[in-house]
Amino acid sequence: MIGIGASPGIAIGTTFVKRNPDIEIKKKKIIHADEEIIRLKDALLKSKEEIRLILKKAADEIGNEEAKVFEAHLMILDDPEMYGQIENKIRGAKVSTEEALEEVSKTYIGLFENMDNLYMRERAADIKDVTKRVLRNLTGADTVSLADIKGQVIIVADELTPSDTAQMDKTRVIGIITELGGKTSHSSIMARTLEIPAVVGAGKEIEHIKSGDTVIIDGDKGTVILNPEEALIKKYTAKKEACQQLKKKLKSFIGKDTITKDGIKVELAANIGTPEDVDGVLKNDGEGIGLYRTEFLYMDRDTFPTEEEQFIAYKSVLERMGGKPVVVRTLDIGGDKILPYLALPEEMNPFLGLRAIRLCLNNKEIFKTQLRALLRASIYGNLKIMFPMISSVEELREAKKILEKVRQELKNEGIRYSFKIEIGMMIEVPAAAILSEIFAKEVDFFSIGTNDLLQYTVAVDRGNKEIANLYNPFHPALLRLIKNVIENGHKEGIWVGMCGEIAGDPRLIPVLVGMGLDEFSMSPISILNTRFIISNLIKKELEKKSQEIINCSTAEEVCEVLDSICVK
Ligand code: PEP
Ligand code: MG
Predict the structure, then answer these.
(1) Which of 546, 549, 558, 568 has the fewest CB atoms in 10 Å of its CB?
(2) What's phi and psi for 235, nearest 5 deg?
(3) Does residue 11 sit within a domain?
(4) What is the CATH number of the domain that holds 186?
(5) Is residue 503 domain-shared with residue 464, that is, in the same domain?
(6) Domain end: 95, 117, 139, which one?
(7) What average pLDDT does this structure show over 29-36?
(8) What is the 3-state secondary structure (H, E, C) of 304-317?
(9) Same domain, 109 and 162
């Protein structure tokens, strides 16, 4: 069975199947609407009581962030609009409470499921969860409760709702398989937080699994093996043990410097999208934040975030990082990231269009609001500001001029800000890489955004599956550009980092060290492994290898050189 690997790791064990009962709603005309309304009110009350208990348990056991889901559930149950529609249906169409509830919630679920935004689409699951609970309380239908788990089990469910996960005893769950759901559904997020291997979206095939079966799940690959043979169990047990050993070894790198065998220190930072992601950075001992993608603050909402809202988010990240560097990238919207409340022109090629800094320079008020919030937050930590998608010196100068203007405004208003903020730019457009010698005189640092730099260098859309084989990070043109940027930065005495995906790629890390990259920024979960890899490298030897790479003609030749690098 193949699904989506939602939380990494291997689990081997006995299953506990939890299927939601099919509650059959018989259509019948009712006579006493008032009695139906009383039933509705009772079921809503009972459901609220249950949710309040779950909310408390979730807050105690998982944390306030997770518990917020249940606050959302309570809000759904308290929604006067939805309640009014159900009541009107009962009185107007003379249908039972069950039928009215089901119909109204179906409309709401449809509304959310059809939204463009993935996050909002997945909120439909909250309404489904709440509706099921109320229906169960109306009909008295029985469900298998996850509170009844005995021993250590792998949970198999159609969909694991937040109420389910809140009730289960997490110490007894060693793995999760679900028929539905995606990488950002509640069960996936919860599984990753608790480090439980999980495969979601495995489809109808999971109906073949019964309670008490033996299964293997591979949360990295998204595979499920039902009733495996002894040989397979042996193979996966060995794999699981190797994973656990590695995890243990990596934990021993917490609190250590990131340093090569010949004593060259580099900085290992993390990429984040929201203030909550700082949890993962601290857990994995990130030495800073190399990329805070602020666009997430602007998404999943109906209006621009205010200066105050932004200030609170930036302040929280800076304070929690306790003086460690935090590189905040100014708004990078456009391309594939759109805001429902910002009308943009139809573009033939949005990735080559009004994106990132171009959009900010065209909409100065949006840009200035963000810069004001950043400057105000700067006194709470070690802030560095970075501009995305710079393709000409004029653009950079204009962005810096606006920043200067904002500084002046704050000064006139008597508002404090730090005088020591480093200003940098992303190198993600070939023009910026080629002109890096000039740019280096105008900024305090570079951060190479290889995700875009690769797409623009080889003219391959980074999201197009048809040509994914051409989006090859081993392309010698990309590697030449990277080396060039690092050298030009160093010539002017500035530091050079990288926040594109390849900064955390174990195959490329050695040559990046050889090229002299100063800072590596990546997903928090890759940090300790990267520190481990770097601690086994000898930079002096890798300098030669990076020169060899530059002389390669093809990606295949590059890979041959990379294979010749032996990492102990
Ligand atoms: C990049 O382009 O490499 C980068 C880090 O930015 P994003 O992935 O947000 O475009
Ligand atoms: Mg980019």
Answers:
(1) 568
(2) -60, -45
(3) no
(4) 3.50.30.10
(5) yes
(6) 139
(7) 88
(8) CCCHHHHHHHHHHH
(9) no
CATH code of the domain in which 452 resides: 3.20.20.60
Confirm whether 243 is a catalytic residue: no
pLDDT over threshold 80, residue 190: no
Count of domains for the chain: 3
**Domain assignment present for 314:** yes
Grade residue 116 by pLDDT with cuts at 50, 70 and 90: low
Q: Which residues line ligand 1 (CB under 6 A)?
A: 291, 293, 332, 428, 449-452, 499-500
Phi first, then psi, for residue 516 (nearest 5°) are: 95, 20
**Ligand 1 atom 4: the closest Cα is on which residue?**
449
Distance separating alpha carbons of residues 435 and 484, to the nearest angstrom? 10
The domain in which residue 169 lies consists of: 146-249
Longest dimension (CA), the chain: 87
Q: Which of 73, 360, 499, 552 is catalytic?
A: 499
Residue in the block written with tokens 């935090």: 326
In the prediction, which pLDDT does 65 show?
66
- 31-39 contacts: CB < 8 A, separation 24 or more? 31/94, 33/90, 33/91, 33/94, 36/90, 36/96, 36/97, 36/100, 37/87, 37/90, 37/91, 37/97, 39/97, 39/138
> With 90 as the cut, is the pLDDT of residue 510 above it?
yes
φ, ψ for residue 272 (rounded to 5)?
A: -130, 160
Please tell me whether residues 151 and 131 are part of one structural domain.
Answer: no
Structure-token pair, residue 341: 């409340």
Domain check: are 207 and 266 in the same one?
no
Nearest CA to ligand 1 atom 3: 449
49 located within any domain: yes
Q: Distance, CA 453 to ligand 2 centroid (Å)? A: 8
Cα–Cα distance between 338 and 359 in angstroms, integer?
A: 12
Last residue in a domain, options 207, 226, 249: 249
| Chain segment 267-294, per-residue pLDDT in tens | 999 999 889 889 889 999 999 999 999 9
Residue of 186, 360, 475, 552 marked catalytic: 186
Given pLDDT bands bounded at 50, 70 and 90, which one contains residue 182? confident
Q: What is the C-alpha separation between 225 and 241, in angstroms, rounded?
A: 18
- Shared domain for 161 and 126, answered yes or no, is no
What is the separation of C-alpha 237 from the centre of its chain, rounded to a whole number of angstroms?
29
Contacts of 170 (CB under 8 A, 6+ apart): 61, 194, 196
Q: Mean pLDDT, to the nearest integer, of 24-42?
A: 87
For residues 122 and 193, membership in a common domain is answered with no
Query: Is 475 labeled as catalytic in the residue annotation?
Result: no
- Residue 67 belongs to a domain with what CATH number? 1.10.274.10
Query: What confidence tens digit (pLDDT) does each residue in 62-87 have?
Result: 666 667 778 888 888 998 998 999 99
pLDDT, residue 523, reads 87
CA distance linking residue 94 with residue 91, whole number of Å: 5
Are 343 and 199 in the same domain? no
* SS3 sequence of 26-71: CCCECCCHHHHHHHHHHHHHHHHHHHHHHHHHHHHHCCHHHHHHHH
What is the residue whose two structure tokens read 């955390």? Answer: 504
Question: Residue 106: what are its φ and ψ, rounded to 5°?
Answer: -60, -40
Question: Which atom of ligand 1 lies at the shortest distance from residue 499's CA?
Answer: 5
d(CA 427, CA 425): 6
Same domain, 272 and 396: yes
- The Cα–Cα gap between 107 and 434 comes to 54
Residue 3 lies in a domain: no
